[in-house]
Specification:
about 600 residues, DNA Primase, Chain A, Dna Topoisomerase Vi A Subunit, Chain: A, domain 2, 3 domains, 9-stranded mixed β-sheet, 19 helices
């Protein structure tokens, strides 16, 4: 276990901050000049590298020989990693701001008001005095909990209003104190440690004879105490989490299990006896119930670890999906685009992949599925022009055609209202939020993102920065599609322009296709270098995670209607035929 888990982006970020130029070779990030020796007097170049899989670094110059890991770099270059690292290693004097108390080892005498209050909670005078619980001299309603570390030095002070009036704070703490666990100075290292959320809960366990009981300083969601108690916690063979049981969740459990996975147990839900916390159990069922709860604590699997028998068995061929409109492709995809995945559509520039993508949207609308479109290359007006022609089936549209198309789109087709997205993180995050809003609030089931990957290039300083951003975005889209059961289509350019395309030829991060459920290519057909037939295309499935079935079909493109079809019959489809015809000469009988 470590206070820090290496992340590849940390190595990349250090490279950007401390080197003017870097290059990548295999798993190594090679710096132009070593940040320690700067290449010596010559200077020597390319001697310093960081392994982007482990975070270890070394300078190959024998007179330098700097080596270590990301924590070494954080300490020696004041490089920002996590807050846990800054606290644990006191980087940039992070911990120097914490208060030091005069007479920090002094024993505090418990006052009668504190003793009486804790008795009302089932906790004896003996325990109250042992843990030095007292009240403020200026206000006997304010309970004081002194937090002392394993040496007995006072580090943190917390207050509790025993009888708060409406609007008053119930608990608060002194400013600038080092957060640690309450009760550390009374624990015997080496055995079992029990951690609760509240101080009165840990005192309840002590009342039950469980001496190694501590509590967190400021609630279930604040874990700033972890780096300050990290080394001390390693000295115990077992940790039992006895958090509050609230709304079906035991507080503290998930985070502490993540940090100490091999030795953390959690009190069983049934041993809470329908109560919220340890003190409630003490008052309702006595000390034996607390001892029983701690002794019966279990190693629990993560909530993400699910028994396969609990997973619903389904027939893939009967799962809901959206047809592509190309029957042979639907057969390959076992019905069409299945919910919960990302579809990557690629093809050579100018061959019409955006047109193919927009026709998928038209088909989805025809099947009564709401859609959202984002275009990173075309203004929304041009996107609409091509969509209109595909819907109506001709080039020149009349005002009546436009009215009918408007009625067909109304409340079902949406477009992102900013056609200029850059590499700005906030704007990308805003787009993700809008996509989720469209899915939840507008019931959009198909999302078309036309060449967002290329639009991200504008602000990327290096290919690595671009690839990280693309990989992160596609990963978020894949999770969003799975979580909300929608279909997200990404249109992406290839690197090549004059050869058969494979999944590896998609421009940008390899994760664009790695994280996709389906990858398709749409290209013109050429034979032996001849000029391609302008009406004939090939639509191929080159990745199909659902069943593995792949294949290509010949399709036909109409310049006038912008439609793509498997046959001339399909090209004449009447998307608007179900709508009521309107006679332009007929007067409306009411205003």
């Amino acid at each position: 276990m470590s206070i820090y888990d290496f992340k590849e982006e940390d190595a990349e970020r250090f490279a950007r901050e401390f080197s003017r130029r870097v290059r990548h070779s295999g798993n190594e990030i090679i710096f132009d000049l070593c940040p320690y020796c700067h290449g010596g007097s010559k200077p020597d170049r390319g001697t310093f590298s960081i392994n982007n899989k482990t975070g270890k670094f070394q300078c190959k110059r024998s007179s330098c020989n700097a080596h270590g890991n990301m924590i070494t770099l954080a300490q020696q270059f004041n490089f920002e990693l996590t807050e846990d690292v800054r606290r644990y290693y006191n980087i940039r004097g992070y911990n120097n701001k914490f208060r030091e108390f005069a007479n920090a080892h002094r024993i505090t005498e418990s006052k009668d008001a504190a003793i009486e209050y804790l008795k009302s909670r089932g906790i004896s005078e003996e325990v109250c005095r042992k843990y030095e619980i007292t009240v403020r001299s200026d206000n006997p309603n304010i309970l004081i909990f002194p937090f002392k570390d394993e040496t007995g030095e006072l580090r943190f002070i917390k207050y509790r209003n025993m009888h708060p009036a409406e609007g008053q704070n119930k608990e608060w703490c002194e400013k600038d104190c080092m957060p640690i666990l309450f009760g550390m100075n009374h624990c015997t290292e080496g055995g079992r440690l029990v951690i609760t959320e509240g101080q009165i809960d840990s005192l309840s366990l002590v009342e039950a004879g469980i001496e190694n009981a501590v509590s967190v300083p400021i609630g279930m969601n604040a874990f700033t105490w972890v780096p300050h108690c990290w080394d001390w916690l390693q000295r115990f063979s077992e940790i039992v989490i006895f958090g509050d049981y609230d709304k079906g969740i035991i507080t503290l459990a998930d985070t502490i299990k993540t940090k100490f996975p091999k030795k953390t147990k959690v009190v069983r839900v049934q041993d809470y006896l329908g109560r919220k916390d340890a003190n409630d159990i003490l008052k309702a069922a006595g000390t034996d119930a607390l001892v029983n709860a701690v002794n019966n604590a279990e190693y629990t699997a993560s909530s993400r670890l699910k028994d396969m028998s609990e997973v619903k068995s389904v027939n893939i061929e009967n799962q809901p999906c959206i047809n592509t409109g190309i029957s042979e492709i639907d057969n390959i995809l076992t019905g069409g685009f299945h919910y919960g995945g990302v579809v990557v559509l690629t093809g050579k520039r100018g061959d019409g992949k955006s047109t193919m993508a927009s026709q998928f949207v038209v088909e989805a609308l025809a099947q009564n599925h709401n859609c959202l479109i984002y275009s990173g290359e075309l203004p929304n007006e041009q996107v609409r022009n091509w969509l209109d022609r595909q819907v109506v089936g001709k080039k020149d549209l009349t005002p009546l055609d436009i009215d009918r198309v408007n009625a067909w789109y109304k409340g079902r087709l949406f477009v992102y209202d900013d056609s200029d997205i850059t590499d700005d993180d906030n704007e990308t995050e805003e787009l993700i939020e809008i996509i989720e809003e469209a899915i939840i609030q507008k019931n959009c089931e198909m999302i078309l993102l036309d060449n967002l990957m290329t639009a991200m290039e504008e602000g990327a300083d290096t290919n690595d920065a671009l690839y990280r951003k693309q990989s992160d975005f596609v990963g978020k889209m894949a999770k969003l599609a799975r979580r909300l059961k929608v279909i997200i289509i990404l249109v992406a350019h290839p690197r090549k322009t004059n050869a058969d395309l494979s999944n590896d030829d998609v421009s940008g991060s390899a994760d664009i296709t790695n994280k996709a459920s389906v990858v398709m290519t749409y290209t013109r057909i050429t034979h032996n270098g001849d000029e391609p037939d302008p009406t004939v295309r090939s639509l191929s499935v080159t990745k199909n995670r659902l069943t593995g079935r792949l294949g290509s079909v010949k399709v036909y493109f109409s310049e006038d209607s912008k439609r793509i079809s498997a046959s001339s019959v399909d090209s004449d489809r009447k998307y608007l035929s179900e709508m009521i015809e309107v006679n332009e000469a007929e007067e409306i009988p009411f205003d």
